[in-house]
């Protein structure tokens, strides 16, 4: 087998195979780590066998082997870890091959995040109250967004320009914002999220934002997904109250022992 560095464009056919084999999608957190990884193509003679991706020289974010070559998967997986001195793995539980390969080893497992999907059920309350508005943010909202949300996002101008940032007002008070980050890997999917004004937390603001974002996605033919840190119970409750459900986890696995063939 030959392993060589490549671009994601060069293995797009393999990436699409990988995505089609998942039992559920993953959100923008994992996607961003994958897309900023270094990719490696695995070949047998001139045939493409699979690929893997490593982020920041230590975190394996993807490992895919075509079914016809999966009898070699365990050996190729260990070789990838050893040759690139991988210290950690991001393993979504929707990836049966990778989670199985990780479970074969005596590695330390930590829970990183929840991944959510749309429940396809209507929330108990979805309407806005009198004096409340929810709409796409414009540059006119920038000053208020920066003041209320501070560094929740890295570049509010960019989110506004892409028409992926929403504002939720009661009269002139900014209650919160919502984001719809269109996926770069999954067609027709977008990660939704929200931030609530600190002065209005525990008042249903987050739920309203999530419900409104889901409805906006439905109207525009987009499938909403989401995620949150595993130990952020407040975010989990908000997403669930807004109509999102989770059956998928992201595991952060530490490579504590290597086996050699």
Automatic annotation (TrEMBL):
Keywords: Acyltransferase, Transferase. It is an enzyme of class 2 (transferase). Residues 132-261 form the N-acetyltransferase domain. InterPro entries: Acetyltransf_19, Acyl_CoA_acyltransferase, GNAT_dom. Its EC number is 2.3.1.-. GO terms for molecular function: acyltransferase activity. CDD domains: NAT_SF (cd04301). This is GNAT family N-acetyltransferase. It comes from Cohnella suwonensis. The lineage of its organism: Bacteria, Bacillati, Bacillota, Bacilli, Bacillales.
């Amino acid at each position: 087998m030959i392993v060589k560095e490549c671009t994601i464009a060069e293995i797009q056919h393999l990436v699409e195979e990988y995505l089609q084999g998942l039992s559920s999608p993953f959100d923008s957190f994992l996607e961003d780590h994958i897309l900023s990884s270094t990719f490696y193509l695995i070949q047998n003679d001139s045939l493409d066998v699979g690929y893997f991706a490593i982020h920041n020289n230590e975190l394996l974010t993807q490992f895919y082997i075509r079914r016809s070559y999966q009898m070699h998967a365990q050996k190729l997986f260990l070789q990838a870890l050893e040759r690139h001195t991988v210290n950690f793995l991001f393993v979504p539980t929707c990836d049966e091959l990778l989670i199985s390969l990780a479970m074969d080893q005596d590695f330390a497992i930590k829970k990183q995040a929840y991944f959510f999907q749309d429940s396809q059920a209507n929330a108990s309350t979805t309407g806005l109250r009198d004096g409340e508005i929810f709409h796409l943010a414009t540059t006119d909202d920038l000053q208020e967004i920066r003041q209320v949300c501070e560094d929740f996002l890295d570049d509010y101008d960019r989110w506004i320009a892409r028409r992926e940032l929403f504002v939720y007002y009661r009269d002139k008070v900014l209650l919160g914002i919502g984001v719809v980050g269109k996926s770069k890997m999954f067609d027709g999917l977008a990660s939704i999220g929200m931030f609530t004004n600190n002065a209005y937390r525990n008042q249903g603001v987050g739920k309203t934002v999530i419900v409104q974002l889901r409805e906006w996605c439905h109207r525009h033919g987009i499938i909403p997904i989401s995620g949150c840190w595993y130990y952020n119970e407040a975010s989990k409750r908000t997403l669930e109250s807004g109509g999102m459900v989770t059956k998928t986890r992201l595991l952060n696995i530490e490579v504590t022992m290597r086996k050699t063939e």
